[in-house]
Write a structure and sequence with these properties.
The protein is built from two helices and no strands. The protein is an all-alpha fold. It has one domain.
């Protein structure tokens, strides 16, 4: 279940980044709509990234996920 939640969160983060990129590359010059769309998409991306990080920390603290670590001495 956690893998699906993380995958969906990453997909939404990449979608917001793509929307911001498309808004930035439009042919308009200094258009208010372009800046508005790009800023909102980047704000969503940052918010989703922070939310994902906090949710991962909470899941680790609650014992829902466990770090596997790297094998040492091999």
């Amino acid at each position: 279940m956690m893998k699906i939640v993380v995958a969906v969160a990453f997909a939404l983060i990449l979608l917001a980044l793509g929307i911001a990129g498309v808004a930035m590359l439009r042919g308009e010059r200094e258009g208010e709509a372009k800046r508005h769309t790009m800023m909102h998409a980047l704000a969503w991306r940052i918010g989703l990234s922070v939310l994902l990080f906090v949710c991962l920390l909470a899941a680790w603290a609650l014992g829902w996920i466990h770090p596997t670590g790297l094998p040492l001495g091999r």
